[in-house]
Amino acid sequence: MAILELNNVSKSFGAGSSRIDVLTDINLSVREGEFLAIVGFSGSGKTTLINLINGLIFPDAGEVLLKGEPIAGPGPDRGVIFQNYSLLPWLSVYSNVKLAVDQVFPKMSSSEKEAHVLSYIEMVNLTPAKDKKPSELSGGMRQRVSVARALAMNPEILLMDEPLSALDALTRGSLQEEIIKIWSRDRKTAILITNDVDEGILMADRIIPMTPGPKATLGPEFKVPFERPRDVTNINKDAQYKRLRNDILEYLIEVGATRRQVSDQKYILPDLKPTMPGRVIFGRKKKKDKVKYF
Amino acid sequence: MKDKSIKMLKTIGLGFTEPLIRLFSGEEPAKNGKLFFKQALLPLLSIFLFIAIWYAGATALYNSEAEVRIEKARAEQGEEAALAMRKCIESGDVSCQPNTLPSPAQVYTAFKALWQDHLSISEKKADFKARVADTNSEREAQGLAPITYTGRPSFLDQIGTSLKTVAAGFLLAVFIAVPIGIVIGLSASLRTSFNWLIQIFKPVSPVVWLLLVFMIVKTVITDPSIDKSFIISSISVGLCAMWATLINTSMGVSTVDKDYINVAKVLKLSIGQNIFKIVLPASLPLIFTGLRITVSVAWMVLIAIELLAQSPGLGSFVWEEFQNGANDSNAKIIVAMFVIGIIGFLLDRIMLSVQNMMSFNKGIA
Q: In terms of residue numbers, what domain contains A18?
């Protein structure tokens, strides 16, 4: 039984001539407990897709079903790790997580709440920084707070919207491992949106590429056959890994190329003749050296 | 310890002393000495320059006014009167001094005179209090109001009254502007419907506000024992100054980062929680920027309003001295000018440090 289903979902923004069809005909079925990765070019509408699932926006056509029911709005049953962390800067790490816990588990006693919050902060290795404000943390630490906040809500589906794309390669690698470690404890359903094929192969059970927008849709699925726990160095040497990676990349490059060819937009260029530049040139400033008088 | 005290000095706006502290602790003497020269000594030099220009200007004005007086005496009463006038002016006699821009020295003398005046008045007050102490305790036992000193207020008392007026006006502005700003900020339709009102009343002059408040207060309050002038002036100050806070609050509330709103939506916060846990904290920095503008506007407007409302305070002090036309009146006006400026500066610094404490996203790039 699929926990999440998207049937013929389309979404566009704007109206009239400025109308952009972001997503068309999205069909997706996510099984309970699986880790799904959606890979695509930047700007192809991946964030729109995740917002459709978490209920911040609604589809123009088609339906998004969570356990067979259409989604009515956002809710803590779908924990989101936002691309830009979205931490509240006036709250400490502890309070940021606590806000979510207060909201999702209103009946817990205060000592239980505290233990709950602290255990999730410990899980992402931020106990020494629990009283710091987000502005005092590095990007990787901020994203870990965001992970702790999403997980502390104990969501049925974990939605990750390019959670690691703003981080450097090393931090990225260690956080990938951490997220996988935490996920494999209770194997909740997880959807990862990413632009990095390697990240998808390392973390997910199934990878679905997304065609570039506008009118983006989902491509054929690629199963990731590796056993868990996966080891980065071992996988990197695996011939199967290379094949899978090449297949996905080839597919993405192919759809990227055809998309460009089928563009039916005509560009009418203005009929201009170049003239010889005269003595007076407007709109160009001479670069001035800054003069220090003292 | 050292870094802590530097941080504290920076929050209260005394950051320019940082190199001096570092210099005393023997840290990079060459660099910090240079920095101290730049940040502290150069402003000091410019103060001296300012006083020098002021002195030169005052002397020139004094001489030209003296010349005019002598010429006038010569034209009206002849050569002998002109000589007598010159002698009189040179002797420094009070009766014939040219009345013009006072020199720095005269202003300093006036300042000392005002201070002495304050001391003697407070002495009189203490004396009065001691004398009526017995009577007052008797009156209190009988349930009557105590006898209070009703003599002339000193310059410092007037500063106190002004500060009280501005504080009352500021509080009024906060209590009106912040809640309305939040409500307006939350609803786009309210914002568009009340925008005309804000845009039209914002640039209205303090004098007109004063007259408007006067019209209303004189009808509403008929009890003669209530101090109407204080009420009128503080309400006018509040109404003049509240607009910056109103606009900043509504802007802060209406432009809360979309990410925070998304967090609130995902967590399904109720409207009240949304306002108090997300919207208000997120807009606090802008609200406090507005409050800082409100304080400086309130102080600026206060002087003009007190001057017109005949409410005791620095404004009426200035006006009375101007009407008085005594020998040192001009110098006293200049003293008041500096006091007004310095207090305004201090108020701004206080608000700036509060504002700095409230801004949370300094470190977020």
A: 2-77+155-262
